[in-house]
């Protein structure tokens, strides 16, 4: 049973290694400081504690990093982490993404005294907007657009009523007028003689 698990584990690791190799970038060192990644030129500015590793860089590099002016790689738990930075005083991103904030990044997000390196991108690539990228990948048959057309097909759109601002104050109000009801006069009370309830006494003389 243990041998079967071991063989299955080895097969999974081999498949993972093949996938990493298929999507890995190509790093070529032209000299000690100059290199190319997928044919684009870079310069190695800092290599602290020999943190620069060509093989790990090939496995971890992504196309999204080509838009940054600088790429910082730091080692933690034997794994390479890459982070992009813009040049100083750049307005492309947040102030924390400028290269002059590198020490803040190392203090806050990296292990103390960890090995790291800094690459200077000599051929910064402009990233395409998402709409242009979707059109290039899917053409006019984008899945989201196609789904939206199918959902709205055959449905009649109701005209939207345009609400006017402050309608409650500007619109004229109409009131219905009802005739005023006459109050019924109270029944006339018969006036009783004020002497009706008086008793008459006769004084007899002795």
From TrEMBL:
<dbReference type="InterPro" id="IPR009370">
    <property type="entry name" value="YutD-like"/>
</dbReference>
<feature type="compositionally biased region" description="Basic residues">
    <location>
        <begin position="178"/>
        <end position="206"/>
    </location>
</feature>
<protein>
    <submittedName>
        <fullName>Transcriptional regulator</fullName>
    </submittedName>
</protein>
<dbReference type="InterPro" id="IPR038141">
    <property type="entry name" value="YutD-like_sf"/>
</dbReference>
<feature type="region of interest" description="Disordered">
    <location>
        <begin position="137"/>
        <end position="206"/>
    </location>
</feature>
<feature type="compositionally biased region" description="Basic residues">
    <location>
        <begin position="145"/>
        <end position="164"/>
    </location>
</feature>
<dbReference type="Pfam" id="PF06265">
    <property type="entry name" value="YutD-like"/>
</dbReference>
């Amino acid at each position: 049973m243990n041998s079967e698990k071991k063989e299955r584990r080895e097969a999974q690791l081999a498949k993972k290694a093949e996938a990493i190799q298929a999507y890995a970038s190509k790093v070529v060192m032209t000299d000690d400081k100059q290199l190319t990644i997928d044919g684009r030129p870079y310069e190695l500015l800092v290599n602290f504690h020999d943190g620069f590793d060509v093989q790990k860089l090939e496995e971890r590099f992504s196309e999204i990093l080509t838009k940054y002016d600088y790429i910082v790689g730091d080692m933690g738990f034997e794994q390479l982490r890459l982070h992009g930075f813009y040049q100083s005083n750049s307005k492309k991103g947040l102030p924390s993404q400028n290269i002059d904030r590198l020490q803040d990044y190392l203090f806050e997000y990296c292990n103390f005294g960890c090995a790291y390196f800094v690459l200077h991108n000599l051929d910064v690539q402009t990233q395409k907007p998402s709409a242009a990228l979707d059109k290039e990948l899917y053409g006019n048959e984008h899945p989201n657009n196609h789904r939206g057309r199918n959902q709205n097909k055959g449905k009649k759109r109701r005209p939207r009523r345009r609400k006017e601002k402050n309608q409650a104050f500007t619109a004229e109000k109409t009131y219905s007028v009802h005739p005023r009801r006459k109050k019924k006069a109270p029944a006339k009370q018969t006036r009783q003689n004020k002497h009706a309830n008086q008793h008459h006494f006769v004084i007899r003389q002795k």
